[in-house]
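call fold(seq) -> tokens
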Amino acid sequence: MTTHLTALVDTLLPGDGGDWPSAGALDLGPRMAEMAALAPGGTDALETVLARLPDTFGALDQPARQALLAEIEDADPERFGRIVTAAYNAYYTTPAVRDVIERLTGYENRPPQPLGYALPPFDESLLDAVKARGPIWRAVPE
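ret:
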């Protein structure tokens, strides 16, 4: 399965041979599986797509893998779309790829807070209605 995951992400995100690394070179197959598991139906989508791949998928050249994935996408675009989304999420949240984005765009590779956007002070009165409801749980006897 890991070989198929690596070949799958490498086919979806092959890199450009220059600035952008391939997802396979970054070993993002397991990360894509994690991202798929976070989305509704993502695990099912990944299992379905992997089950449709031949045992020789990883040994095929890039055009042959692309052709197979195009057939799977045509047959089941919704599931395939979930896999693409998971692959993109894994790729573009990877520090190495964020480093490329920073180098090419100047957008810093860091979380937006606390150094990012200026936020107004939090207005605690927004919680008044919730606080007025009281506890929404039952106390556990000791």
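Residues 77-92 form the longest helix (16 residues).
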